[in-house]
Design brief:
The chain has three helices and ten strands. It is mainly beta. It is elongated.
């Protein structure tokens, strides 16, 4: 990642770009935070890394194609307990593990305010909003949970549920706002926040107080470094 940043900066000076018809590439570093029901599963979220290919349509509109990878580790399930019917006591699963990984591909349409795209030539900051959509591939991996429906005492902690993994690909929509700062005719720094709605679901774990989630909702904030090439 650091090497890629260095290359983008090193090549930011050479070729001046026309506004319309300009292509670009970039990298993204974000922090992603689940919200609403998904937050009950993974309260802390995790990092998101990505790459971008973009095309400047005109002074106002830019189209992006982005690929992302993100991971939520150490879900709240690892801290949760179930109520054992035999003695009414709360029982934990010391070896439990919960994590969720994402790979997504989306297309975004960015609208700069006040023909902000022209600042590719003049420099300065340009606020914008965006709308996008695409495919979100996810895997929710769970293991190490004690079988909670045992009816003989004492509780046998060696009886572990079979590991499960919900792996699916779902459609999603995202909305966002940001500010793109054009440091030169080829280099820009983009600060952005995006809200994502994904039409995916995971199975409920009601014994541990975790209900089914649909749809997924998550928010990410971060920075992008973009290199504009000659059109």
């Amino acid at each position: 990642m650091l090497g890629t940043l260095a290359l983008l900066v090193a090549f930011s000076g050479p070729c001046a770009a026309e506004v319309g018809g300009t292509w670009g590439v970039g990298i993204a570093v974000n922090y992603e935070m689940p919200v609403f029901k998904l937050r009950k599963w993974f309260p802390s979220g995790g990092p998101q890394l990505g790459g971008t290919v973009l095309y400047v349509v005109n002074d106002t509109w830019t189209t992006e194609v982005e690929l992302h990878w993100s991971k939520y580790a150490s879900g709240d399930l690892e801290k949760r307990t179930f109520t054992w019917a035999v003695d009414g006591m709360e029982k934990s699963s010391p070896s439990s593990s919960s994590e969720m990984t994402w790979v997504s591909g989306v297309v975004n349409w960015i609208r700069h305010f006040d023909s902000g795209g022209s600042k590719l030539e003049s420099g300065g900051g340009a606020p914008y909003f965006l709308i996008g959509g695409g495919f979100y591939h996810y895997a929710n991996n769970i293991s190490g949970l004690i079988f909670p429906f045992q009816n003989a005492s004492p509780l046998d902690t060696s009886k572990i549920l079979r590991p499960v993994s919900d792996v699916r690909t779902a459609l999603g929509l995202n909305l966002g706002v940001g500010v793109e700062y054009f440091a030169s005719e080829t280099l820009a720094i983009d600060f952005r926040g995006q809200y994502n709605i994904v039409l995916g679901t995971v199975r409920p774990l009601e014994a541990w107080g975790l209900n089914e989630v649909f749809p997924f909702q998550k928010f990410n904030v971060g920075i992008r470094l973009k290199l504009y090439l000659e059109g």
